[in-house]
Amino acid sequence: MPHIFTVLGARPQFIKAAPVSRAIAKEGMTEVIAHTGQHFDALMSDVFFDELDIPKPAYNLEVNSLGHAAMTGRMLEKLEEAMLAEAPDIILIYGDTNSTIAGALAGAKLNIPVAHVEAGLRSFNRRMPEEINRVVADHVSALLFCPTQTAVRNLAAEGLTKGIHAVGDVMFDTTLAAVKRAEGRSTIIETHGLKPGSYAVATIHRAENTDDPERFLHVMDWLEEAARMRRIVMPVHPRTRKLLVSRGLTLEGLTLIDPIGYLDMARLLSQSAAVYTDSGGLQKEAYFHRVPCVTLRDETEWVETIEAGWNRLWTSKTYAPRRDITDYGTGDAAAKIARALQHAL
Ligand code: UD1
């Protein structure tokens, strides 16, 4: 029976893995999960395993809160050990974090085929750690699962044309499942006394926005300005929380809350009037809920959201004419991935 070794570590990876793990089990394959430990708070990790029914990790590597080299290096060493013990047929990695690149390198060096979910995304900004992680992960992977046609073209431009599968976006699969589950289980709207359609949701966590103090203040000013128009609810990432506390910043018009689970986020988004974010995932989720988004970055990998008029960069004042995006699929991306894995083995 085909045996799959999945590497997870950060919040967006748990969200992407949920439907794929279900589909892998359905195809009759076995899966073992290694959690690198990159995200370790209950609100950044455990809640997703519980709410999204992700199988319990067999390996907890507990590598976190380190610089890029130390984090990736320690993960590599521990992942190699676990991979040798499991002798899997395939290594499955997600997205663009330090956990992704560690899984990709550990697997490729052991000559185990690596499968990358969310392959081919590019911001063309090599100052982002995520861009380095994406490029390296794609180039050592044997199977490249692309969410969009743009991603397929990006890979072709780098000479990658084998093992490419345009499957759609697994996050759409997760959203469809979450919307159903959130009904009756999430009380976030009531808890914060929100009026549907009258508030915005914001998240800020990217290194490019938090590492440079001047830029961070600029982003926070932008949010305070936006909050004059409508109330903003902002679940705060631990790194952003640390910065706000260390600078003694209070943000007028913003309701700052702890990080929230996926069901609460689905319900919060579904009733919101706008999304302001530097997260890749949230840009798409805004579209899934048909809520307009402003991306607080100077470029985005999710160019379809911009072209289809649901998203704009903060450097631009207007949205393109609105239309639907067909690339993301119909919620069957995970099933397509599981079938392709089965077929490859
Ligand atoms: C990582 C990814 C980023 C992704 C994001 C999702 C990399 C290079 N970046 O960034 O692409 O969008 O995850 O959230 O891999 N921390 C806690 N508790 C936690 C998690 C983090 O306190 O549960 C703290 C860490 O100690 C660290 C900071 O937050 O000081 C940043 O965490 P880190 O894992 O380095 O990266 P993220 O910013 O979360």
Count of individual beta strands: 13
Rg, nearest Å: 19 Å
The gross shape turns out to be globular
* Mean pLDDT level: 97
CATH class of the largest domain: Alpha Beta
> Which class of secondary structure composition applies to the elements?
alpha/beta
CATH superfamily of the largest domain: Glycogen Phosphorylase B
State the end-to-end distance.
9 Å
Regions with little confidence, pLDDT below 50 for 5+ residues: none
Largest sheet: 7 strands, parallel
Oligomer: single chain
Strand content is: 15-25%
Question: Could you give the order of the helices and strands?
Answer: EHEHEHEHEHEHEHHEHHEHEHEHEHEH
Small molecules in complex: uridine-diphosphate-N-acetylglucosamine
The number of helical elements comes to 15
Give a structural overview.
- With 345 residues, the chain is an alpha/beta fold.
- The chain has two domains: 3-169 and 329-344, Rossmann fold (3-Layer(aba) Sandwich), CATH 3.40.50.2000; 176-327, Glycogen Phosphorylase B (Rossmann fold, 3-Layer(aba) Sandwich).
- It is 46% helix and 16% strand.
- It has 15 helices and 13 strands.
- The protein has helices spanning 11-26, 42-51, 68-86, 98-109, 129-140, 149-157, 170-182, 188-191, 207-210, 213-227, 238-246, 262-270, 280-288, 303-307, 333-344; strands at 3-8, 30-35, 59-60, 90-94, 114-117, 143-146, 164-166, 199-203, 231-235, 254-257, 274-277, 293-295, 311-313.
- It has a seven-stranded parallel beta sheet with strand order 3-2-1-4-5-6-7, sandwiched between helices. The chain has a six-stranded parallel beta sheet with strand order 10-9-8-11-12-13, sandwiched between helices.
- Helix 1 links the parallel strand 1 and strand 2.
- Helix 1 (11-26) runs parallel beside helix 2 (42-51) and helix 3 (68-86) crosses helix 4 (98-109).
- The mean pLDDT is 97.
- Bound molecules: uridine-diphosphate-N-acetylglucosamine (UD1).
- Uridine-diphosphate-N-acetylglucosamine binds at residues 10-12, 38-41, 44, 64-65, 96-98, 129-130, 205, 237-239.
